[in-house]
Fold this protein.
Amino acid sequence: MIEEVGTTEQGDLVINVGPQHPSTHGVLHLVITLNGETIKKVEPHLGYIHRSIEKMCESLSYRQFIYVTSRMDYLSSHINNHGCALCVEKGMQIEVPARASVIRVLMDELTRLASHQLWWGAMAMDVGALTPFFHAFREREAINDIMEETCGARLTMNYMVPGGVMADIHPDFQKRVKEFIRFFRTKIDEYDELVTGNIIFKSRMEGVGYLSPESAVSYGCTGPTARGSGVSCDIRKLYPYEVYGQLNFEEVTVSGGDCFARYKVRMQEMRQSISIIEQLIDNIPEGEFLAKTKAVLKLPKGEFYSRVETARGEFGVYIISEGGTTPYRIKFRSPGFSNLSALDLMARGHKIGDLVAIMGTLDLVIPDIDR
Amino acid sequence: MNKEELKVRIEELFPSSVFEEGTEWTTVVIDPAGWEGFARGLRGAEGLELDYLFCVTAIDWKTHFTMVYHLTSTVCRHTVVVKVKLDHDRPVIRTVSDIWRTAEFHEREAFDLFGVVFTDHPDLRRLFMTDEWKGWPLRKDYEDPVNMIKL
């Protein structure tokens, strides 16, 4: 790809951004065509962290393959595991105990908070504010500690298994989560004071990277990226799973389509996640945390699709089974992959500095895109 | 529309449609030759308006390939799955990236990993593998002595 770099016949400059660049948050490689400072074209080159997870899963059993999925979107590993567990449960027709169902939703929302915190810190850093990063990581650390107590891991949890969750919650879990929520409620207001109203930050974000609702749907964008364009696409609301159908929360949509709209969606989503956690934390039903299942899982012949809402959008798991102990074919529909495809459209006509802001609001996680 | 209504509506538009039974969503199996017209119909026809293509993938059945398209309408909130059977020796199908823009990346992925060729695709190149890569990694007969991961 190096040979493409240089000056074109029209006098445009073709340059590389990444794969090792602080603002690409991983090994994303963009080849961009510039006219002066204006972007004419953005072309993502993927595959630097491609591990062919789908191929690997073809030789793993239905209990094993879930662990690999934590390594895709490592900031939403709980939710990835959740999607896979749901798909296997759908095929096996396993009923998940009420306790496990609530624990799963709690973990999902804590993950969403942690993911959005990291995004907020990194996003602000991308546009030149370094301090928020340290604020965000301080709060995220508290969630990681809670995760570590219950799941034994801080990043790739592998806590959700077909039939429920792997182990019961830690005895201190409820106390720790309540402490965290009380602490974080004050901090999220601080986030707004520190960054959201900042005039410099606003001028970097407003009117930049416009994505129309029609384009958002056509490009398959989901999650906060599409909801920033006013498209309703929250799987938790549209196709409720676990206990989401009984909860009182709102799907956040902001009709701006620019970077600031996507920013606002994620900020409000954090408050919605807090509300969901508050509704559930004192109402965890007693009972089993794991349904009784056979030692070896065999999905019946057929195909099964499950979809969940990760912090980045819709995550789909498509299993084609031939009746054996391993999937015949498995496909992961990752949200970041589709969101990234709209980057070219959003960035065209903007200045090179805005590209970083646009990428920041897409909240890209590269292992999720490359798989 | 529910599953039955969708079936009736699609049959109305394309009388030769073959439906698969016992699936979660309405599933139509069609030939690659009629795919473009069928796709435009699904996207544009009144009452269907399937504007959101959320999953595109290929399956290698050793004797043939199946392209699977998962479509949802953001207006009517119904889902249709389309399966297209392709020849194993010459897997060729018309692109739908001009109808659903998201297909451009997804089809490049299917080309890269399965070797399915999409005619009229604006930019059909390898996506994850390097340009020099030989073979199609997700095919069932793929063997690579160096890079093969066996678990």
In short: The two ends of chain B are 44 Å apart (CA to CA). The beta strands of chain B are 18-20, 26-30, 52-60, 64-72, 79-87, 92-94, 117-119. The mean pLDDT of chain B is 86.
